[in-house]
Design goal:
Blueprint (H helix, E strand, L loop, with lengths): L2 H7 L19 E6 L14 H7 L7 E3 L5 E3 L19 E5 L14 H12 L14 E8 L2 E6 L20 H4 L11 H5 L7 E7 L3 E6 L13 E6 L3 H9 L6 E2 L6 H8 L4 E16 L26 H9 L3 H8 L4 E3 L22 H10 L12 E2 L2 E2 L1 E7 L2 H15 L4 E7 L1 H4 L17 E6 L7 H4 L25 H12 L3 H17 L3 E14 L2 E2 L17 E2 L2
Length: about 575
C-alpha cells in the first residue's frame, strides 16, 4: 500500500468518545501525580515527557493521535489528505483548516498567525528548540487567512504530519511569546510557566519541580467540558509512592509511568482503590553512549561536542562487547515482567518498523572478553580494568532516580566489570535529569557522563521525526542552549542521507525498510544499546471515568473527557 493512499482515508473513521457529562466544572477536583515533576510548561524548551504531558492540559496541536494510533483532528476542522484536497498532489504542501471560532483561554481569537509564529519560534536560528525535528524539511509556513495554515516542504513529503501534530508539537500564542524568540526563549519565565492555551485547563499556579494547579478553561471550545473544575498536578517523589497514592490510599486519581517491578504493582492493586492500565507502544529503555568526550577538563564549547570524540566508546569492539555482556532477559524479569520484552532495537513498534537483523537475547561474557582481547584492548597493569591507547575503560554511568533503574545499574555494572570495564554509578532526581534547564550540568541533554540510561518514545505510528533525532545537526550544544534530540551526539553522513531519503519516500514497504535500516545504523554504530521494550504502565482511581491509555501521544490527551463516576 502506498503512503499516499493511506492519506486518502486517514480521517474516515476517526471518532472521539462522547462526553459522559453535561456541565462544565461539575465534578470538583481531579488529582494527578507524576513522580517526575514538571520543570517547565513549554515543551519546545524541554524534551522531558513530564513537561510535554503537563503542558498538554493547556496547549494543543492541530491534530493528534488517539488511543489506537489513529490521526484525529484537534484544533483543525479535519485531517488534510490527498483525497480531501488538503495535501497537494505533488506532496509538497499540506493545508490545514482551523475550526472556526476557537479562542485562547484569555478570550482572544486563535488564528493561523499563531500557528505560523510557532514555526518561527521553534526554528529561530539563534535559539534552541527541543522539538525541531518536527519541522525537518519545512521551507515555509503561510497564513493566507485567519483559519488557513499552509505548510510548504522543500521536497515531496509523503508524511506531512510532523509540524503541529501530537503533544510534542503544540501551538503557542504569538502575542504571549512575541518577545521570546531566539536566545530570549529561555528568559521568558512567565510565558514558559504560565502559557495561555486552547486546552481544557488554565494554569493557576506553577511551582517548578513541585506542583501545578489548574482551573477549567472558561473559553474551552466545548461548553460541556471539562467535567473537573480543578486539577492538582503533583510532581516528584517516586514511582512507588505514586502507585501507592492511587491504588492503595486513594489520595490521587491518576498516577503516571509506574516503573515498578511486577510483584510490586500486583501488591498495590490489591489495595482496591485503583487499577493499573498498560499498553505497548515504541517505548525503549536503553543505554545512550556518549560519542564525544565529557571530560570536565574541557571547555563547554568542546566538551560533549564533536570537536573531541570519546576516547573509547566509539570503538566497535567496546560498544559491541558492552552489549554482549548484558543479560536482557534477566533485566525484563527483574524490572518489568509481562510489561517488558527483550529488544535490540531503538524503534520496536509499530511492528513494520521492528528490525529483525540483530539478536541480543543471550548474554555472552566470554565472547565479549574475546572480542576486546582480539582488538588489543587489554588490562596491562593487572588492576582488572582494560585500557585503550592508555586510557582505562572507566565510565560514569548515570540515570534518573528510580528503583528499577538503580537495580539495572547495579546489574549492568557487575556485568561490565566481568569484561574489564569499571563503572561509577550516579543517579539524578528525575525532575532535574529530564528538565530543560540550560544552566544545569545534570540534564540528559547536557550528558556530562559516558553512559546514561533512560527511555522515551514518539507521537504517532510513523517514526520519521523520531529517527531524525539521530541527525548530526540535532545534537545539543551551547549555541542551541543545550536543546536538541540527538543526545548521544551520534553523527554519520550516511545516516543523514538515508533519513533524507525516508522523508521523500511514499511507498509504505520502502518506508518500513528504510526505517529499519536507520534503526540498525545507529545501534550497530554505537549510538545506543537498547535494553527493554517497555509497556507504558499507569494507574487510575476506580472512581475516575473516561481514561483511555494512549501509548501514541500524551497520556493526558483526552483529559477533557475525564469525569467522576458517581
Amino acid at each position: 500500500m502506498q503512503f499516499k493512499s493511506l492519506m486518502l482515508t486517514a480521517a474516515a473513521s476517526l471518532v472521539l468518545a462522547p462526553a459522559a457529562f453535561a456541565e462544565r466544572a461539575s465534578d470538583g477536583e481531579v488529582k494527578i501525580i507524576y513522580w517526575q515533576a514538571p520543570s517547565i510548561l513549554n515543551p519546545f524548551l524541554s524534551g522531558g515527557t513530564k513537561d510535554v504531558e503537563s503542558a498538554s492540559l493547556v496547549i494543543e496541536p492541530l491534530a493528534r493521535y488517539n488511543e489506537n494510533g489513529e490521526l484525529v483532528a484537534w484544533l483543525a476542522a479535519e485531517v488534510p489528505t490527498v483525497g480531501n484536497g488538503g495535501v497537494s498532489e505533488d506532496l509538497t504542501s499540506i493545508t490545514w483548516k482551523i475550526t472556526p471560532g476557537l479562542k485562547w483561554s484569555d478570550g482572544s481569537a486563535f488564528t493561523s498567525a499563531d500557528v505560523k509564529f510557532t514555526h518561527e519560534y521553534c526554528t529561530h536560528p539563534e535559539g534552541g528548540c527541543a522539538q525541531v525535528t518536527k519541522f525537518e524539511g519545512v521551507s515555509s509556513v503561510e497564513a493566507p487567512d485567519d483559519v488557513t495554515v499552509v505548510v510548504n516542504f522543500e521536497k515531496p513529503t509523503p508524511n506531512p504530519y510532523g509540524p503541529f501534530v501530537g503533544g510534542e508539537s503544540p501551538i503557542i500564542q504569538a502575542a504571549q511569546f512575541a518577545e521570546c524568540l531566539g536566545a530570549a526563549a529561555s528568559t521568558c519565565t512567565e510565558a514558559n510557566f504560565n502559557p495561555i492555551g486552547t486546552g481544557p485547563f488554565v494554569v493557576d499556579e506553577f511551582k517548578p519541580n513541585d506542583v501545578i494547579t489548574f482551573s477549567a478553561n472558561p473559553n474551552y471550545r466545548d461548553p460541556a467540558k471539562p467535567a473537573f473544575a480543578k486539577v492538582t498536578f503533583k510532581g516528584g517523589g517516586s514511582a512507588a509512592a505514586s502507585g501507592t497514592a492511587v491504588m492503595e490510599t486513594g489520595e490521587f486519581d491518576y498516577g503516571w509511568n509506574l516503573q515498578l517491578a511486577p510483584d510490586v504493582i500486583a501488591k498495590m492493586a490489591e489495595g482496591g482503590k485503583g487499577v493499573p492500565v498498560a499498553g505497548f507502544g515504541p517505548l525503549v529503555e536503553r543505554l545512550m553512549l556518549n560519542q564525544t568526550n565529557p571530560s570536565p577538563d574541557l571547555a563547554d564549547d568542546v566538551r560533549s561536542t564533536a570537536a573531541e570524540p570519546h576516547p573509547f566508546l566509539t570503538d566497535p569492539a567496546v560498544y559491541q562487547a558492552m552489549s554482549m555482556a548484558i543479560d536482557r532477559p534477566l533485566l525484563v524479569e527483574v524490572g518489568y515482567g509481562k510489561a517488558g520484552k527483550v529488544t535490540c532495537n531503538w524503534v520496536p513498534a509499530p511492528e513494520a518498523f521492528n528490525s529483525t537483523s540483530m539478536t541480543c537475547d543471550k548474554q555472552d561474557i566470554a565472547g565479549a572478553n574475546a572480542l576486546l582481547d582480539e582488538a588489543g584492548i587489554v588490562d596491562t597493569d593487572g588492576d582488572g580494568i582494560r585500557e585503550k591507547d592508555g586510557v582505562p575503560l572507566s565510565i560514569l554511568y548515570q540515570s534518573s532516580t528510580n528503583a528499577v533503574r538503580q537495580d539495572f545499574q547495579a546489574l549492568i555494572k557487575e556485568w561490565f566489570s566481568e569484561i574489564g570495564i569499571e563503572s561509577e554509578l550516579r543517579n539524578i532526581d528525575a525532575s532535574v535529569f529530564f528538565g530543560g534547564d540550560a544552566g544545569s550540568p545534570d540534564t540528559f541533554q547536557k550528558f556530562y557522563a559516558d553512559v546514561q540510561m533512560y527511555a522515551n518514545t514518539f507521537n504517532g505510528t510513523d517514526p520519521q521525526s523520531y529517527l531524525g533525532n539521530g541527525l548530526c545537526d540535532k545534537a545539543p550544544r551551547p549555541e542551541t542552549q543545550w536543546q536538541g534530540e540527538n543526545i548521544s551526539r551520534f553523527c554519520m553522513e550516511e545516516y543523514d542521507a538515508l533519513h533524507a531519503q525516508l522523508r521523500e519516500t511514499a511507498d509504505m514497504a520502502e518506508r518500513n525498510r528504510i526505517g529499519r535500516e536507520l534503526n540498525d545504523m545507529i545501534v550497530q554504530n554505537g549510538g545506543m544499546i537498547p535494553l527493554v521494550h517497555r509497556g507504558r504502565l499507569s494507574a487510575h482511581a476506580n472512581s475516575l471515568g473516561g481514561v483511555l491509555l494512549n501509548v501514541w501521544d500524551s497520556e493526558l490527551w483526552n483529559v477533557a473527557d475525564w469525569y467522576r463516576i458517581k
